[in-house]
Model the fold of this input.
Amino acid sequence: MIQLSPYSQLPDDVRQLLNDYIHAEFGHIPIVQETAWASPDWTILYKEGDTIVSFYNIIERYILMDGKSCKVAGINNVITPAAFRGQGYCTKLLNDTTSFIFDELRTDYALLLCADAMIPFYQRLGWYTVDSEVYFDQPSGRKRWAANIMLLSLHKPVAPATIDLQGTPW
Done:
């Protein structure tokens, strides 16, 4: 069962469990430790009974692509706990929630900051990499993102020269 929930309405125990999964998956990565991150607007859970088998978060935001404003669903913390990997849960979750991202949230694109090893997985789902200069905010000032950026669109792929996240990354 897929459950879409505003992040602010998640029960404390669920939020803590998700944070534990996030820390276990990404907490050891230096850029994760050194970066101030955006708080999610939505959490998308895939559950088998009461067990969370995969999840991700969405940050809704207007960003600038080559100076033009567009609404994106910033996808973050896409995680399938180790015990449930290799069973297609994440693929189903991402595929089955595309209509929520584009139709209900009315976004122009979905955007994720992606590790090298995950690019082939997302490409199989229709995502594409962009070679853009990406800027974001941090307490210490404006920064440039140095890793991979991927977009998902229902329309013709775009290749912006610059992307401004208009806030902290996700």
